[in-house]
Amino acid sequence: RMALGVVLAVVLAVVLALGSAQQVGPALDALTFRNNGTLSSADHVTVGSIPCLYLEPANVTRAQWSWADSGHHEYLFLQAAGPQSCNVSTQEKTDMRGHDIAAVPVGQPNTTLCTELCCKTAGCVAWVFALAPGPYLSCKTGQPCCYLKSAVDVTDPNPACTLGLVQQPARQAPPSGVRSAVPLGGVSCGSVELRADGSLREWTVMNQSPAGAAKFGVVDDAALGLRIASARGAAGKASFTRLLRTHPPHGLPGVQALRYQGAYPVSKLSVQDPALPAAQVAVYGYSTYFPYNLEQSAVPAIAFTVTVDNTAAGASDLDVSLFFSLPLMEMDTERRGAKPGHAVPSARHPTECLQACNDMAKCAAWTFTPQGSPACQLSLDAVPLSAYELGSVSGVKGLWLQQDDQHVLHLDRVATAQAATSPAVGSMTLLATAANGSLHTQTWLGDNLTQVFEAFAQSNGSSSSS
Question: Which pTM was predicted?
Answer without folding.
Answer: 0.79
